[in-house]
Design goal:
The chain has helices spanning 25-31, 45-62, 87-98, 119-127, 143-148, 166-180, 198-209, 238-241, 266-273, 277-280, 303-306, 314-344, and strands at residues 76-81, 102-107, 133-138, 154-160, 187-191, 213-217, 233-235, 247-250, 288-290. It has 12 helices and 9 strands. Helix 2 (45-62) packs across helix 6 (166-180) and helix 6 packs across helix 7. It has a 5-stranded parallel beta sheet. Strands 2-1-3-4 form a 4-stranded parallel beta sheet. Bound molecules: aspartic acid (ASP) (2 copies). One aspartic acid is lined by residues 159, 165, 198-199, 252, 254, 292-293.
Length: 345
């Protein structure tokens, strides 16, 4: 169910703050009292705004000539990717390096998982190396949580199966909040392959929690059953789904996850659901176009629309991604330090 939050609860000052204005470790634990970031579900508006405010500071820092701030010096971050990803891994790698962490990338192709080692064996082996942060992507929903229960470091979910991709939803929220000045009260249409999309799930949780009105627009075969229970309106036609919306969020058609026949044909899909100027014409004139990438041009989005610098925020999403990941690394490692010093005192 959508939770509509009164504006008094939400931080209204969205002017970018320098990262140096970030609060002290003790404040972090109370503002974001979580050891891991496994999903958006369960986070409250204050916690989400806290991460977004901190991210704003990192956006500013990343636009300076000197982008580095060694607050993670001496800490080890392992990016453990059981599923291929260049974009997300690079973004997390850059975020960790800009904060001074030692960053190690471990991908399934080079690991012994292929040799029959289980997920939990991998977790136990890695744990013995004392990483402070593990950034984990896995093809199965729930695998990242399982791993988080076996390791001492903080775990960030970088996408698990069809379940959640929390840093994607945070970077989308940051993009929206900076462009529109708010999230509450906006109408957001999430369109396309909702069924297979962890991006859709994380965004639905975040946007409804922050008081946006969320519509999902897809053919019935690409919608999970009972999706309305997450507090969204369901539309099967772009004409009604996009009508007067402020944000059009397109999703990649996840053909690698489709075993049966979900679609008549890709051409037919583009005709009915692909975003072009004609379908966009019913949205608000200043509606923002978003896509988490990688895009299938000509499948879910027309290439000219995707590259329209006046309407599309797709490049900006990538920039926001690094800042959001820096904020998440910052918060979780400061929480660890605060807990460690409490334990010592
Ligand atoms: N899913 C894409 C990839 O694996 C984009 C992302 O990383 O989120 O590269
Ligand atoms: N990059 C996003 C993900 O990894 C979206 C996608 O791959 O379509 O879930």
């Amino acid at each position: 169910m959508a939770t509509f939050i009164s504006s008094t609860l939400m931080s209204t000052d969205h002017t970018p703050k320098p990262a140096s204005a970030a609060p002290h470790a003790g404040d972090v634990v109370s503002a974001f009292p979580h050891k891991h970031l496994l999903g958006i579900e369960g986070l409250n508006p204050l916690e989400i705004n806290y991460l977004l405010d901190l991210s704003d500071g990192y956006v500013e820092q990343n636009r300076q000539a000197n982008k580095n701030k060694a607050i993670l010096a001496g800490l080890t971050q392992i990016n453990l990717f059981f599923e291929n990803s260049t974009r997300t891994r690079t973004s997390f790698e850059l975020a960790g390096k800009r904060l001074g962490a030692d960053v190690i990338n471990m991908s399934v192709a080079t690991s012994s998982v292929r040799k029959g080692e289980t997920l939990l064996d991998t977790a136990i082996t890695l744990n013995a190396m004392h990483p402070d942060i593990l950034v984990v992507r896995h093809g199965q929903s729930g695998a990242v949580k399982l791993l988080s229960e076996k390791v001492d470091g903080a775990v960030i979910n970088a996408g698990d199966g069809w379940h959640e991709h929390p840093t994607q939803a945070l970077l989308d929220a940051l993009t929206i909040r900076r462009r529109k000045g708010r999230i509450e009260g906006l109408t957001v249409a999430i369109c396309g392959d909702i069924l297979h999309s962890r991006v859709a799930r994380s965004n639905i949780h975040l946007l409804t929690t922050m008081g946006a009105r969320v519509r999902v627009v897809a053919p019935p075969t690409l919608l999970p059953t009972a999706i309305e229970r997450l507090g969204v309106e369901v539309h099967h036609r772009m004409e009604t789904g996009l009508s007067d919306c402020d944000i059009v969020m397109m999703l990649r058609l996840q053909r690698e996850r489709m075993e049966g026949s979900y679609l008549p044909s890709v051409r037919e899909f583009f005709h009915l659901y692909g975003l072009d100027y004609d379908k966009l014409s019913v949205a608000r004139p200043d509606a923002l176009i978003m896509h988490p990438g990688p895009m299938n041009r000509g499948v879910e989005i027309d290439t000219v629309v995707a590259d329209d610098i006046h309407r599309s925020a797709i490049q900006e999403q990538v920039e926001m991604g690094v800042a959001v990941r820096m904020a998440c690394l910052d918060v979780l490692t400061r929480n660890r330090r605060a807990h460690a010093s409490e334990a010592l005192s």
